[in-house]
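hey can u check if this looks right to u? its 274 residues, i copy pasted from the old doc so theres a chance i mangled smth
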Amino acid sequence: MEGAGSIESGPHSIGVVTVATNRYIDYWHEMALSADRHLFPGHPVVLHVFTDRASDARAMAGDLTNVVVNPVPIEALGWPKATLLRYEVFDSHGSDLQQDLLMHLDADMLVAQDVGPELEPAAWPGGIALVRHPGYRRPSLGRRLSLYAAEPRLALSDAYAYAKIGGIGSWETDTRSRAFVPRRSRRTYVCGGTWFGVRPAFLSMVHELAVRTRADLEEGTIAVWHDESHLNWYAAGHRTAVLGSEYCFAPGFQSVKDLNPKIIAVDKADDRTR
C-alpha cells in the first residue's frame, strides 16, 4: 500500500473479517448482500467469515456477484467470548488474510452506499483507521448547542462524564484490566463494529490485542465492553486515523442525525450499539 493515495490509485485487494457464529450468520448474510453492492466497488473483495455454520455461508455465497466468500470454520462461541476473543480468532488465521487492505465489519451491519473510493490508507497514521462511536459523536459547536437544547439530559450527561471520568465514552476504568485507559487519555471513543488497516498494521494490532485480551481472561478479568474496550485502549495510546460515525451509523442517536450514513448498525432491540 505504500505510495498509494486513495483506494482508487491502484488495484488493491480488500479483505473483510467477520465473526458470525450461531444466529449471526443470518445477519452476516444481509451484510454480505449489501457489501456485494457497495463495498470497494471495482476492487477484488474477499469476505472472510469465521463461523460454526460454514456450509450455510457457502450456500449464501451463491447470492453474491462481486465479492468472494471464504468461510473459516470455528467453534460456536458463547457470550462474551464471541466478541472478546475476535482478535484471537483473526490473529490465529493471519496467514490466510493476504489482502492489501483489511477491514473488520460486525455481522450485524449494512453497507448503505459505496464505501472505498474516498478512503486514503496511505495517509492513515500507523496504517490504521478507526471509527468514532456514534453514541459519543458530537457535532460542531453550533449544531452541538442545538443538540443540547433539544436534549438537555444529554448536555447534563456529557458535563457529568467530563467532570467524573475526563471524557464521554464507555471507557474501561478498572485498573485490573489491560483495557484500562487513564483519565488524561479519554478523548475520542471509537466503536468496535468497523475498523480498517493496511495488512501489516492490521495484523500487528490484532496480535497485540489478542495477547492482552487473553491475559485478562486468564486472570479472570473481562473489560466492560469486551473487544471494544481493548480497541479504545489501543486508540488512546497509538496514532491512528479516526473516521466519522457515518461508517458506523446508529439511527437511534440524535447526535448523528446530520450525517449521511455509509455503514449502518442494525437495530436488534438490544444494547450492542449503545
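Residues 270-274 have pLDDT under 50 and may be disordered.
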